[in-house]
Amino acid sequence: MLSEQDKVTIKIPRQLYDKLKTILDGSGYNSVTDFIVYVLRDLVASTRKPDGKISEVEFDEIKQRLRNLGYLE
């Protein structure tokens, strides 16, 4: 289990949070935070290369996906 010192706060628009909360109701996720952590871990895992580095194109794709999810403007 992670301690509070091992965590950081990520701010997202309230409207996005509320939509996710509605969508996730009854989905099995304990919270919106759990879902966001799952999505971000999946995103990182799907773009990782054996050497752990990503290309500039992959970095841009990640930024665009995060923008589409409402994490970046």
Could you explain how this protein is built, in words?
- With 73 residues, this protein is an all-alpha fold.
- The protein has a domain of 45 residues.
- It has three helices and no strands.
- The radius of gyration is 14 Å and the shape is globular.
What labels describe this entry?
73 residues, mainly alpha
Work out the helix count: 3
Span of the ends, CA to CA: 31 Å
Major β-sheet annotation: none
Shape from CA axes?
Answer: globular
Low-pLDDT stretches are none
What is the rounded Rg? 14 Å
Strand content: under 5%
Number of strands: 0
Order of helices and strands: HHH
Task: Please sum up the structure shown.
By secondary structure, the chain is mainly α. The protein has helices at residues 14-24, 32-47, 56-68.
Write the layout of secondary structure elements.
Blueprint: H1 14-24, H2 32-47, H3 56-68
